[in-house]
TrEMBL record, chain A:
Signal peptide per UniProt: 1-22
Key words, A-Z: Endoplasmic reticulum, Glycosyltransferase, Membrane, Signal, Transferase, Transmembrane, Transmembrane helix
Described purpose of this protein according to its UniProt entry: Dolichyl pyrophosphate Man9GlcNAc2 alpha-1,3-glucosyltransferase that operates in the biosynthetic pathway of dolichol-linked oligosaccharides, the glycan precursors employed in protein asparagine (N)-glycosylation. The assembly of dolichol-linked oligosaccharides begins on the cytosolic side of the endoplasmic reticulum membrane and finishes in its lumen. The sequential addition of sugars to dolichol pyrophosphate produces dolichol-linked oligosaccharides containing fourteen sugars, including two GlcNAcs, nine mannoses and three glucoses.
GO molecular function: dolichyl pyrophosphate Man9GlcNAc2 alpha-1,3-glucosyltransferase activity
Transmembrane regions: 110-132, 144-164, 176-199, 229-251, 300-320, 350-373, 388-410, 431-459, 471-497
Stated family: Belongs to the ALG6/ALG8 glucosyltransferase family.
UniProt pathway: Protein modification; protein glycosylation
Organism: Macaca mulatta (Rhesus macaque)
Catalytic function, reaction form: an alpha-D-Man-(1->2)-alpha-D-Man-(1->2)-alpha-D-Man-(1->3)-[alpha-D-Man-(1->2)-alpha-D-Man-(1->3)-[alpha-D-Man-(1->2)-alpha-D-Man-(1->6)]-alpha-D-Man-(1->6)]-beta-D-Man-(1->4)-beta-D-GlcNAc-(1->4)-alpha-D-GlcNAc-diphospho-di-trans,poly-cis-dolichol + a di-trans,poly-cis-dolichyl beta-D-glucosyl phosphate = an alpha-D-Glc-(1->3)-alpha-D-Man-(1->2)-alpha-D-Man-(1->2)-alpha-D-Man-(1->3)-[alpha-D-Man-(1->2)-alpha-D-Man-(1->3)-[alpha-D-Man-(1->2)-alpha-D-Man-(1->6)]-alpha-D-Man-(1->6)]-beta-D-Man-(1->4)-beta-D-GlcNAc-(1->4)-alpha-D-GlcNAc-diphospho-di-trans,poly-cis-dolichol + a di-trans,poly-cis-dolichyl phosphate + H(+)
Membrane protein topology class: Multi-pass membrane protein
Name of the molecule in the record: Alpha-1,3-glucosyltransferase
Domain of life: Eukaryota
From TrEMBL, chain B:
Enzyme kind, highest EC tier: transferase
Record's subcellular location: Endoplasmic reticulum membrane
Cellular component GO terms held in the UniProt record: endoplasmic reticulum membrane
Protein family per UniProt: Belongs to the ALG6/ALG8 glucosyltransferase family.
One Pfam family per UniProt: Alg6_Alg8
PROSITE patterns: PROKAR_LIPOPROTEIN
Protein species of origin: Macaca mulatta (Rhesus macaque)
UniProt-recorded name of the protein: Alpha-1,3-glucosyltransferase
GO biological process, one term: protein N-linked glycosylation via asparagine
InterPro entries: Glyco_trans_ALG6/ALG8
EC number from the UniProt entry: 2.4.1.-
Annotated TM spans: 120-138, 159-175, 205-231, 251-276, 352-372, 378-395, 446-466, 478-500, 506-525
Keywords: Endoplasmic reticulum, Glycosyltransferase, Membrane, Transferase, Transmembrane, Transmembrane helix
Gene of this entry: ALG8
Length: 509, 543
């Protein structure tokens, strides 16, 4: 590639931003007794290093599960173990059993931040660069600009490098991205392997699993279930089973072990939602306290039904007409429905939606940028708690400027470029006056941005009234939730009308 | 196209500002204080200087407000008193009026080592805000670049490259936004005055430069270039056909108006102190000759090479028993702790020697400017040479002074391939020599990443710009520049784990400054040669 140096510069910019953000404070800094996610990650290193594998997920005198017990799949635990070995080499105090609880120092912070950077550098960033290079039909310049925007996406940077989530998002998302890359380049086996690794690193990657499943199944159908398709299906099944078995090997020895890990991974008893999340249940909670009215198993069934119904159409569509673009769009809509409707959602899970949105950035720049801005905004209460206001504002502005200049998004708001052409044509058959769609979307964007800015300003400057101490964070969640609902509808419309337009174009040509 | 240019610049500006913001956040993040964990002997003064001269000295300066103007530069409350010319004091005075809205405590004269997150925020934002002037100056400079080689793409245009080279300048970024100084707007003034000279608005240029001199007197280094250029090309209105001077074209009006401008600015600045009879005090603060020849960390100039040679000779002498170990001053062996570096073998250097050396080094370039004037470009080359020569031979030069040569040189680099290659050697080594300014572990990745960013961009963009001409570097230069990588690895990653760390703590800094001194001397020499053998303007026109 003749522009290799520009790509290098883009990667370097991404790294610089990441490292500068990492110099800020992290979650739970100096807040005993529980500290925060940072301490959780350190604690896991302590547990995995000092205890035998069999005790990792069990409550014992050495492993108090109430204090940041391990609740992620085995791959996370192995990663912690690896980090622990390095930590042991540098300073054994960092991972000493019991005595190291709540350990904080500049050097240790540096170490933890470096582990994130290295994981990012090895998994996520190469995936992004390769993905952008593999894009078709766009110029080298656009590819590089695309890489810049994806790497500058503030949500991921702020959560991984500022907040310091106890799980390295860049690793799980990076594996998922490798999966997308593999599947869309027709290296199906590699893709599914990478995606299995992602699931085994973070169970929330299951949000993405249905589109993967449907897309691969659709591919098999396309090749004919009696011939090549069947072979592919068997191969894929073998890959998935083998990679799962490999990851879970130490826990398959006893039945109780496996069950305990699963119980830790899916904590059904933790309730419909925790804290403030920008999903339906939390927003609905403002009007009606569902958690207290309905029994838990009904909540579970209800959330399952809603999730299932909302993602069903897109998945069926993908299975019947598998295409690379449809696959990415379905990833978005599935992850978004999971985020909005499913049980026990974290506010940070929005990153799982943002990743596929980043992948469609070059195709629908206007809407993607808008969505990514909203997703960052929905994290505001969390970031404020960690004193990350300044980095959030600066990185968001940098990201916005990068998007505006590299895609000139404001000039791409016609129906054609919003991929809404076929939809509006079919609506116009019944409603001939339906011509204001693109203008409406522009106004909506303006309103949404203005509310976000105003709410941010209010949260930062005003004190909430005494009676409603959470007023602003609830408002933030509510506004983001409305936005997300709109996006869910939008992406589903695109998916549903997408292939029709494709067919129409074919007919025309 | 102009619109594009403007836009890209504004964006770059914002980004550089946001970069500053990040530096700012970073400070508050790492809890910056004098907790130097690894201040070895060689480093210590450097560290103190960095910490105090950085934020504290400025806090101190903001305190000017509390003191009546007659005591502005006079007190001895602390060791970090104002040692800048009066305009800077006024600037700090204005800042202090804004500062009181942030944090009252900051302005207390007795509060010497005061620091709080709000103070930090205020200080950092003031730097970013003042950079607006720098951005404007860069915009003006870009207008002066002749756009003959207009490429198809925006990123390949000389103007775009120049604006990135100036706005993203690694040295300026770390010195201003991480280390903390107000260089941005001062360089803004300098670039603005250069731009005005390019636009033939000589009076404005002279005015800006006079103002600049009264902000920071380090710019006296380049004053000869200004003086001679204005005299030769502005006061003499015509040349003979062969390019030599026509004496009868001398314009008295122009000289007097120039003099008036400079005089008025100086009167405004120094007048109040003259009236209060404090001028000697001001000057004694401005020109402290009590400090040593070199900083604790030797700036990579001629004297660094001289010191290193002295050291090598003394070691050889001891080995071969030419020297008596008892006669050697102890300090010279531990190095760094003592500001006064005593030479053992070679003769010691006095301020007068450095002054004479500097003058001798500057003279040829001045003659060149006088006898074969080449318009503003010749002036710019002379200015760069003045700055570089003073850097090479000056007394107690700080490594940051290299920026004085690097920034004007950026303007030259996008116009001619030969200048571009000199510029690249100069910037890369000069910037690398700034590395010891940032020495804590969290800053290590930042400085390496930013340096890589700037270096890769400058080299590759200038290579694409001049791809039709011969390659920018010969094998020797390539080898030298690539050598910086292993040097950094040795100094920062390998050396701390070796046993030499205790025995010779100063070794990495010594290696850095000597290695960089070689490159900078080479660049200086090459630039001088190219200026001297360049054909005068008359001949170029014939060609």
């Amino acid at each position: 590639m003749e522009k290799w140096y520009l790509m290098t510069i883009v990667v370097l910019i991404g790294l610089t931003v990441r490292w500068t953000v990492s110099l800020n404070s992290y979650s739970g800094a100096g807040k005993p007794p529980m500290f925060g996610d940072y301490e959780a990650q350190r604690h896991w290193q302590e547990i995995t290093f000092n205890l035998p594998v069999k005790q990792w997920y069990f409550n014992s005198s050495d492993n108090n599960l109430q204090y940041w017990g391990l609740d992620y799949p085995p791959l996370t635990a192995y990663h912690s173990l690896l980090c622990a070995y390095v930590a042991k080499f540098i300073n054994p105090d960092w991972i000493a059993l019991h005595t190291s609880r709540g350990y904080e120092s500049q050097a240790h912070k540096l170490f933890m931040r470096t582990t994130v950077l290295i994981a990012d550098l090895l998994i996520y960033i190469p995936a992004v660069v390769l993905y952008c290079c593999s894009l078709k039909d766009i110029s080298t310049k656009k590819k590089i600009a695309n890489a810049l925007c994806i790497l500058l996406y503030p949500g991921l940077i702020l959560i991984d490098y500022g907040h310091f989530q106890n799980i390295y998002n860049s690793v799980s998302l990076g594996f998922a991205l490798w999966g997308v890359l593999g599947v869309s380049c027709d290296w199906d086996l590699l893709g599914s392997l990478a995606f299995c690794l992602a699931i085994n690193y973070k169970q929330m990657e299951l949000y993405h699993s249905l589109p993967f499943f449907c897309f691969l199944l659709g591919k098999c159908f396309k090749k004919g279930l009696k011939g090549k398709g069947f072979v592919l299906l068997v191969k894929l099944a073998c890959t998935v089973v083998a990679s799962f078995v490999l990851c879970w090997l130490p826990f398959f020895t006893e039945r109780e072990q496996t069950l305990q890990v699963l119980r830790r991974l899916f904590p059904v008893d933790r309730g419909l939602f925790e804290d403030k999340v920008a999903n339906i249940w939390c927003s609905f909670n403002v009007f009606l306290k569902i958690r207290d009215i309905l029994p838990r198993h009904i909540q579970l069934i209800m959330s399952f039904c809603f999730t299932f119904l909302s993602l069903l159409p897109a998945c069926i569509k993908l299975t019947l007409q598998p295409s690379s673009k449809g696959f990415r769009l379905t990833l978005v809509s599935c992850a978004l429905s999971f985020f909005l409707f499913s049980f026990q959602v974290h506010e940070k899970s929005i990153l799982l939606v943002s990743l596929p949105v980043c992948l469609v950035l070059s195709e629908i720049p206007f809407m993607s940028t808008w969505f990514l801005l909203v997703s960052t905004f929905s994290l505001l209460p969390l970031l404020l708690k960690d004193e990350l206001l300044m980095p959030s504002v600066v990185t968001t502005m940098a990201f916005f400027i990068a998007c505006v200049t590299s895609f000139s998004i404001f000039e791409k708001t016609s129906e054609e470029e919003l991929q809404l052409k076929s939809f509006s044509i079919s609506v116009r058959k019944y409603l001939p006056c339906f011509t204001f769609l693109s203008r409406m979307i522009q106004y909506l964007f303006l309103i949404s941005v203005i509310t976000m800015v105003l709410l941010t300003l209010m949260t930062v400057t005003l004190d909430p009234p005494q009676k409603l101490p959470d007023l602003f964070s609830v408002l933030v969640c509510f506004v983001s939730c409305l936005n997300f609902l709109f996006f869910l509808v939008y992406f589903n419309i695109i998916i549903m009308w997408d292939s029709k337009s494709g067919r129409n174009q074919k007919k025309i040509s | 196209m102009a619109l594009w240019q403007e836009r890209s610049q504004s964006i770059l500006g914002t980004q550089s500002a946001s970069c500053g913001c990040r530096a700012l956040k970073k400070r508050s993040g790492t809890g910056w204080g004098a907790q130097g964990t690894d201040n070895t002997g060689f480093r210590r003064p450097q560290l103190d200087c960095c910490v105090k001269n950085g934020c504290r000295a400025k806090t101190e300066s903001v305190e000017t407000k509390k003191q009546p103007s007659n005591g502005g530069v006079y007190t001895a409350t602390s060791e970090w008193t104002l040692d800048y010319p009066p305009f800077f004091a006024w600037f700090e005075y204005i800042l202090s009026h804004v500062a009181k809205y942030f944090d009252q405590e900051m302005l207390n004269v007795r509060n010497l080592n005061y620091s709080s997150s709000r103070t930090l925020l205020f200080q950092r934002f003031s730097v970013i805000f003042m950079d607006v002037l720098f951005v404007y100056a860069v915009h003006e400079c870009c207008k002066c670049i002749d756009g003959k080689k207009v490429g198809k793409e925006l990123t390949e245009k000389p103007k775009f490259i120049l604006s990135v080279l100036l706005l993203w300048n690694f040295g300026l970024l770390i010195v201003d936004h991480i280390h903390f100084q107000y260089n941005g707007f001062l360089f803004g003034l300098m670039l603005l005055s250069i731009a005005r000279l390019f636009q033939k608005r000589h009076m404005e240029g002279a005015f800006f430069f006079a103002v600049l001199l009264h902000f920071k007197h380090i710019y006296l280094y380049v004053a000869p270039a200004y003086g001679v250029y204005l005299l030769r090309s502005y006061c003499f209105t015509a040349n003979k056909p062969d390019g030599s001077i026509r004496w009868n074209s001398f314009s008295f009006v122009r000289v007097i108006s120039l003099g008036l401008v400079v005089f008025l600015v100086s009167a405004l600045s120094l007048g109040p102190f003259l009236a209060l009879n404090q001028l000697p005090q001001v000057f004694s603060r401005l020109f402290p000759f009590k400090r040593g020849l070199c900083h604790a960390y030797w700036a990579p100039n001629f004297w660094a090479l001289y010191n290193a040679l002295d050291k090598v000779l003394s070691v050889i002498g001891l080995k071969l028993k030419f020297l008596d170990p008892n006669n050697i001053p102890k300090a010279s062996m531990t190095s760094g702790l003592v500001q006064q570096f005593q030479h053992t073998v070679l003769p010691s250097v006095t301020p007068l020697t450095t002054l004479i050396c500097t003058l001798i080094a500057i003279l040829p370039s001045i003659f060149c400017l006088w006898f074969k004037p080449q318009g503003p470009r010749g002036f710019l080359r002379c200015l760069t040479l003045c700055a570089l020569s003073s850097f090479m031979f000056g007394w107690h030069v700080h490594e940051k002074a290299i920026l004085l040569a690097i920034l004007p040189m950026s303007l030259l680099s996008v116009q001619k391939a030969g200048d571009a290659s000199i510029f690249l050697i100069l910037t890369t080594t000069g910037h690398y020599s700034l590395f010891p300014l940032l020495f804590t572990a969290p800053e290590l990745p930042i400085k390496i990443l930013l340096m890589l960013l700037f270096t890769i961009y400058s080299i590759s963009s200038l290579k694409t710009l001049f791809r039709k001409e011969k390659p920018l570097f010969n094998w020797m230069e390539t080898f030298y520049l690539l050598g910086l990588g292993p040097l950094e690895v040795c100094c920062e990653f390998v050396f701390p784990f070796t046993s030499w760390k205790v025995k010779y703590p100063f070794l990495p800094l010594l290696l850095t400054s000597v290695y960089c001194a070689v490159g900078i001397t080479y660049a200086w020499f090459k630039l001088y040669v190219s200026v001297l053998i360049d054909p005068p303007v008359g001949k170029t026109k014939k060609q």
